[in-house]
Design goal:
Layout: E1 5-7, E2 13-15, H1 17-24, H2 28-36, E3 43-44, E4 50-51, H3 54-68, H4 73-80, H5 85-118, H6 128-138
Antiparallel strand pairs: 1-2, 3-4
């Protein structure tokens, strides 16, 4: 059986693309795509096969953390290409603004759902919280209906 692991030049463990992708629960095509975008630069063995080491582990973990934060691959590539604080801030500021807007929208959604859970009316459209949200959305005042 062919081994996908061997020692690198510094003695560190090097993994083939399959074993490396599996370590993160990724498909191998994802790593190839990230490499094509310039996000990864794996070493190659004598046969031209990709070999991933400790530095690549850190890079992939960084990419995954940034993706989980909502950053796109182009933004991640821009961040990885800069060391300047001002440039980093210019890249991250719009992402932070967008995330704040998404959090506000999610909070409003949660309030609507919790309002529905806590409302004692049989018809959710009679709940005060629901009526307030509808009034805000339509820009009008919704009359309070009798119970």
């Amino acid at each position: 059986m062919k081994s996908t692991e061997d020692g690198g030049a510094d003695g560190a463990e090097m993994l083939g693309i399959g074993a490396f992708a599996a370590r993160f629960g990724l498909a191998t095509h994802v790593l190839r795509h990230w490499e094509a975008m310039g996000l990864l630069h794996p070493a190659r063995d004598a046969a031209g096969r990709r070999r991933y080491g400790a530095e690549d582990l850190t890079r992939v973990a960084t990419i995954l953390v940034m993706k989980e934060a909502g950053l796109g691959l182009d933004t991640i590539r821009s961040l990885s290409a800069t060391t300047g604080r001002a440039t980093r801030h210019a890249i991250l500021r719009p992402a932070a603004d967008e995330l704040r807007a998404r959090i506000a929208a999610a909070q409003a959604s949660l309030e609507l759902i919790e309002g529905g859970l806590n409302c004692e009316h049989e018809d959710v459209t009679r709940c005060p919280g629901y009526r307030r949200l509808i009034a805000e959305r339509t820009g009008s005042v919704v009359r309070q209906q009798s119970r």
